[in-house]
Amino acid sequence: MKKITLILFSIFIITSMNAQDIKKLPEPIKKGGMPLMEALNLRKTDRDFSSKELDPQTLSNLLWAANGINRPDGRRTAPTARNMQQIEIYLYMQDGVYLYLAKEHALQLVVKGDHRKEAAKQPFAQVAPVTLVLVADYAKMNMDDKELRDLYAGTDCGNVCQNIYLFCASENLCTVELGMIDRESIEKLLKINGKVLLGQPVGYHK
């Protein structure tokens, strides 16, 4: 009896710890915004970041626009080849690194602490309140052809990247696509089975 009680207590503790590591985001606002043609006209790279943190609703809308679920069957706002949905979004923020969970529309804490300087060396990226790191999860791809796998990963990453750009144009936010990121540092910290593709800081204008 004592052994069963101890096991149940351990499960409770582990579950509670996991629950504390999950941050539920506000429901995304899926109506309104700027007309598409206007957003395309205003889409640009902007490195003039303020350090002001994104408010929770804006962060929620950003992540949903980037690669959230937009249909009952679980498909996303960004297309992927064979519907592999292999592009994961990690958020490097002041208090930690998080993984965006599209199904739950929530953030899962991966590691505590401010690691933004380890992801991107550019000073403007270290000022931005959040740097989105786009990663191809190889476990979801199930492909032996490395060349084709990398092609699909890069193409699908580009779809997510453009969604982020268009959302930022619509909401008057700064963003920039970063190819020069510290992939080795990111892979070591996140312990991923996949490929780190791009970084993309997002924030308010200075």
Give the gist of this structure:
The chain is of the alpha+beta class.
Key structural traits:
single chain, 206 residues, alpha+beta, NADH Oxidase, seven-stranded antiparallel beta sheet, 7 strands, 39% helix, disordered N terminus
Task: Describe what this molecule looks like in 3D.
With 206 residues, the protein is an alpha+beta fold. It has a single domain, classed as NADH Oxidase. The chain has helices at 2-20, 36-42, 56-67, 116-119, 123-127, 146-171, 183-190, and strands at residues 22-24, 87-93, 96-101, 106-112, 130-137, 174-175, 194-203. The protein is globular. The model is unreliable at 1-17 (pLDDT under 50).
How is the main sheet built?
7 strands, antiparallel
Gross morphology? globular
Radius of gyration: 18 Å
Count of helical stretches: 7
- Helix content, binned percent: 25-40%
In the CATH hierarchy, what is the superfamily? NADH Oxidase
Tell me the CATH architecture. 3-Layer(aba) Sandwich
Secondary structure: elements and pairs:
Layout: H1 2-20, E1 22-24, H2 36-42, H3 56-67, E2 87-93, E3 96-101, E4 106-112, H4 116-119, H5 123-127, E5 130-137, H6 146-171, E6 174-175, H7 183-190, E7 194-203
Antiparallel strand pairs: 1-4, 2-3, 2-5, 3-4, 5-7, 6-7
